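A reminder from the course coordinator: this example appears on the midterm review sheet, so study it carefully.

Given structure:
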């Protein structure tokens, strides 16, 4: 069963989804290029990173088939990002830590758009915030797993927490009757700020400190 979404909110969701798709696709393509994958591998990673979060969101809220599978713009944008990366990687690479920057931007956009769409489909604010977080982290997790890396969400960095904070602003702002544009912008700023603070200022969650006897010996005799 589909939800009735106001035209203004639908336009906002689509703009955030398409922009997030592009920046996440860039993050996947750049990561693939830096690992030495060929053009096919770059395109696959760009599509996977860009669409996994949105597909997961739509399946969970019953928006079937997922919009990324029926709207040609999502696939086209993902492929465009992969092609741009393949031919102009040196230009893109001039940015400081390009994968992390693109990933942070995509995380923020997908988190707030995911929360908005979950609310439009009738979810309560706590679950809408969680679904917004899942929308944001899905693509990055899939990208890292395919590159045999530990997903950033499982490390101590502010990744899932940043997405949850941004999505939470949107979800609970809606329950308070706040203007959606204001909550969207605030959620974007908070999520992006937390993520960039983690990248450049070292903000992180506390880590477990195992005792000396439980640590793995890196140089066994």
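Designed residues:
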């Amino acid at each position: 069963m589909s939800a009735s979404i106001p035209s203004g909110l639908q336009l906002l969701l689509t703009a955030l989804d398409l922009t997030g798709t592009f920046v996440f696709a860039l993050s996947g393509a750049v990561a693939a290029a830096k690992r030495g994958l060929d053009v096919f591998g770059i395109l696959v990673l760009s599509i996977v990173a860009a669409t996994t979060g949105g597909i997961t969101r739509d399946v969970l809220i019953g928006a079937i088939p997922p919009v990324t599978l029926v709207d040609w713009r999502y696939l086209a944008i993902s492929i465009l990002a992969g092609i741009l990366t393949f031919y102009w990687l040196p230009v893109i690479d001039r940015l400081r830590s390009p994968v992390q920057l693109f990933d942070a931007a995509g995380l923020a956009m997908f988190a707030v758009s995911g929360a908005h769409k979950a609310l439009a489909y009738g979810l309560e604010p706590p679950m809408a915030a969680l679904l917004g977080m899942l929308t944001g982290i899905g693509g990055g997790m899939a990208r890292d797993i395919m590159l045999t890396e530990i997903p950033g969400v499982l490390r101590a960095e502010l990744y899932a927490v940043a997405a949850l904070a941004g999505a939470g602003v949107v979800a609970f702002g809606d329950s308070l009757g706040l203007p959606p544009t204001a909550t969207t912008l605030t959620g974007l700023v908070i999520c992006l700020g937390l993520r960039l603070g983690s990248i450049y200022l070292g903000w992180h969650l506390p880590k477990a400190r195992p005792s000396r006897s439980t640590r793995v010996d890196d140089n066994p005799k």
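Residues 11 and 63 are 17 Å apart (CA to CA). Helices lie at 7-34, 39-61, 67-70, 72-92, 98-120, 125-146, 160-175, 180-201.
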